[in-house]
Amino acid sequence: MLDQSIPNSARIHSALLGGKDYYPVDDVIAGRLAGNKITPAITESRRFARRAVSHLLNHHQIAQFAELGCGFPHTPNIHDIAEEHTSSARTLYIDNDQLAASHALALMAGHRARTAEVDLTDTVAVVEAVAATFDMSAPIAWILSGTAELNDHAPLTHALPPPTWLVLTHITADVFGHDITSAAQALRAVGIAYHS
After folding, report:
1. What is the C-alpha to C-alpha distance for residues 165 and 70, in angstroms, rounded to an integer?
2. Is the CB of residue 148 less than 8 Å from the CB of residue 45?
3. How far is Cα 37 from Cα 41, in angstroms, rounded to an integer?
4. So what's the pLDDT on residue 52?
5. 188 with 9: CB under 8 angstroms?
6. CA 20 to CA 11: how far, in whole Å?
7. 34-37 long-range Cβ contacts below 8 angstroms, 24+ apart
């Protein structure tokens, strides 16, 4: 049983982006961030990831995509973009949040996409999940959009097998510093280790 009294970063993102997959506790946190520049920053971060996927498909013929920390769906999803370009595209969504992984699994019907419920800090388990899904001799795009602020991904990026493409977005306080810093502080105050 999921504890609905504990806020969760994926559900807060859903609330901030106009999604429907969150609990009242997440909505309270999102409400505190209303008007904060973190919402457009998160939106632009996701738009960049989508553009990067299209670029890799169109210019580098990448057909394997692993999204680490997929969170809750916001159309178009990575598999939507990939499969629109080529019917051979394969997508793996990885998330350790049981509810987010369940939502990702529900999207998979009729698609060449899979989901794995794995902790992103467990580098060995992440690489094993990817190896069980993809052709490891072919290029893979690893997508970290919305998770780099939550985890240290250095061990994972060092473990990635070649040939690998890394699509990484990270919200920083370089622009709108006060808003991003205060949003990060608000998230840390409720137990979400957010680093700007």
Report:
1. 17
2. no
3. 6
4. 96
5. no
6. 9
7. 36/179, 36/182, 36/183, 37/175, 37/176, 37/179, 37/180, 37/183
Spell out where 57-176 has E strands.
64-68, 90-94, 113-116, 140-145, 164-169
Classify residue 29 by its DSSP letter.
H
Contact status, residue 184 vs residue 194, Cβ threshold 8 Å: yes
By the 8 A CB rule, do 126 and 93 touch?
Answer: no
> What is the model's pLDDT at position 151?
65
User: Quick check: 12 and 187 in contact, CB under 8 A?
Assistant: yes
Q: Which two tokens stand for residue 66?
A: 């692993």
> What tokens does 111 get?
């698609």
Q: The tokens of 12 are what? A: 């807060």
Q: Among residues of the chain, what percentage have pLDDT more than 90? A: 25
The band of 184, judged by pLDDT with boundaries at 50, 70 and 90, is confident
Query: How confident is the model over 37-66, as pLDDT tens digits?
Result: 888 888 888 899 999 999 999 999 999 999
Question: Superfamily for 9-189?
Answer: Vaccinia Virus protein VP39 (3.40.50.150)
- Residue 8: phi and psi, rounded to 5, are -135, 135
Q: CB within 8 A of 145, min separation 6: which ones?
A: 45, 46, 48, 49, 67, 69, 167, 168, 169
Distance CA 60, CA 138 (A): 12
Which of 134, 62, 138, 153 shows the shortest CA–CA distance to 92? 134
